[in-house]
Amino acid sequence: MNIILLGPPGAGKGTQARHLVDTRDMIQLSTGDMLRAARTSGTEMGQKVAEIMDSGKLVTDEIVIGLIEEQLTTQSGSGFIFDGFPRTLAQADALAALLTKLGQSLHTVIEIRVDDEALVQRISGRFTCGDCGEVYHDKTKPTSVDGKCDNCGSTNMVRRADDNADSLRTRLMEYYKKTSPLIGYYYAKGDLRPLNGLADISEVTASVEAILG
Ligand code: AP5
């Protein structure tokens, strides 16, 4: 079962993807995580995308499609969760072609709907475990012990460079200009399943489970 989690920055795509990885043995393909890993490993591509990511703009289709193709052809499991990909119509077409080439298909596209004000709150309070990637929030999902990851016990908590007001404005603009047309695209294909992303994390998880069956 291959699914797309579609939604604006801070909608909760990564949070829900991690739940599906834990409970369904699915593989999370987050292009944001892949690009951040490329940055920290200091590759030429990582250096090229660092400035673009910090500004909140989208990196080129060519780069992200290449990253996804590499993962699709080298990994296997109980299905892929596309988190933060596709983000443009060109990426959506490329994904369809890649899946067809591999004899696979797309099960569903879950659109997580959240209003802009809530997104700002979520992004400004987010922090992540630098070791295992668990996602937290100052108010809605704090760690049980201050500064210590509930999942792996690490105290290496990080905040993203692009989680600031200026960059968020650009990320939202990029979303509305380039990614939101995908809502109509997948609706027309009959693949789109919207849900209320403003609910509590556990309620959103229940909605995702209900869609996936
Ligand atoms: P990426 O890493 O994909 O960032 P994003 O899309 O902006 O999404 P986020 O990771 O910020 O949010 P999320 O929806 O995963 O929310 P989360 O679960 O963390 O991309 C970063 C950059 O990389 C892009 O700007 C671009 O430059 C580049 N890039 C990546 N992919 C690309 C592509 N395909 N093409 C081109 N460029 C690409 O939740 C957010 C917070 O809210 C957390 O603190 C969480 O605890 C909390 N929260 C979650 N759900 C709830 C809830 N229901 N109620 C209350 N709080 C909640």
From TrEMBL:
* Functional description taken from the UniProt entry: Catalyzes the reversible transfer of the terminal phosphate group between ATP and AMP. Plays an important role in cellular energy homeostasis and in adenine nucleotide metabolism.
Q: How does it assemble?
A: Monomer.
- Put simply, this protein is called Adenylate kinase
Task: Fetch the CDD domains from UniProt.
Answer: ADK
Organism whose genome encodes this protein: Ruegeria spongiae
For domains, the record's comment is:
Consists of three domains, a large central CORE domain and two small peripheral domains, NMPbind and LID, which undergo movements during catalysis. The LID domain closes over the site of phosphoryl transfer upon ATP binding. Assembling and dissambling the active center during each catalytic cycle provides an effective means to prevent ATP hydrolysis. Some bacteria have evolved a zinc-coordinating structure that stabilizes the LID domain.
Q: Which residues bind AMP?
A: T31, R36, K57, L58, V59, G84, F85, P86, R87, Q91, R160, R171
Q: Report if keyword Transferase is assigned.
A: yes
Main location class = cytoplasm
Enzyme class, one word? transferase
Metabolic or biological pathway, per its Swiss-Prot or TrEMBL entry: Purine metabolism; AMP biosynthesis via salvage pathway; AMP from ADP: step 1/1
The UniProt record lists the EC number as: 2.7.4.3
**Annotated catalysed reactions:** AMP + ATP = 2 ADP
Q: Specify the Adenylate kinase active site lid domain's residue ranges.
A: 126-162
Q: Which domain of life is it from?
A: Bacteria
- List the InterPro entries hit by this protein, alphabetically: Adenyl_kin_sub, Adenylat/UMP-CMP_kin, Adenylat_kinase_CS, Adenylate_kinase_lid-dom, P-loop_NTPase
Q: Name one GO molecular function term.
A: AMP kinase activity
The cross-references to SUPFAM superfamilies, in alphabetical order and at most eight, read:
P-loop containing nucleoside triphosphate hydrolases
Question: Does the keyword section mention Lipid metabolism?
Answer: no
Q: Which UniProt keywords apply?
A: ATP-binding, Cytoplasm, Kinase, Metal-binding, Nucleotide biosynthesis, Nucleotide-binding, Transferase, Zinc
